[in-house]
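# step 3/5: fold
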Amino acid sequence: MNVKSRHHLRADDIDAIEQAVAENLGVELDADSFEKVEFDDSDWNVVLVDGDPFVLYVESEGQSGDAASAEPFLTVQGLNAYPPEKHVVTVDGGAVSFVSDGADIMRPGITEADDDIEAGDLVAINEESHGKFLAVGRAKTRGDDMVGDSGKVVESIHHVGDDLFEFSA
């Protein structure tokens, strides 16, 4: 991914990111600089937090191409740097390779999901043995309905090993 431009965000944009991340994930970002990055060869909308690609803008469900409706959420790197307290879905060891390859998350691989998750919410995908975050996804059902025998319950958006994960400023 080739960087087209980088620019520092205004204070109100930073406040919006910090508020969204705090409300959705229970995380307080402690940083000195926030820079938006645009790419020549990618549609990712990324914010560097103290130089690291920790924030991703994700289009709201049902929206397409409307930057104003995009919501800020932590990237996989951001989730591992600032572990969330809310909107976490935990998968077992058998699901790790699939999730890491970008597969959607299926009920049989889920061991736990926060009850506060609603269908359409962005969620952080965590693996149970080491506590590392593997992916960002969008819930297709409520958290209390995610553990079970069959069915796709989280759509993968960003994962370990994708272009955004490999990007470094």
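# step 4/5: annotate
The mean pLDDT is 91.
# step 5/5: archive (pending)
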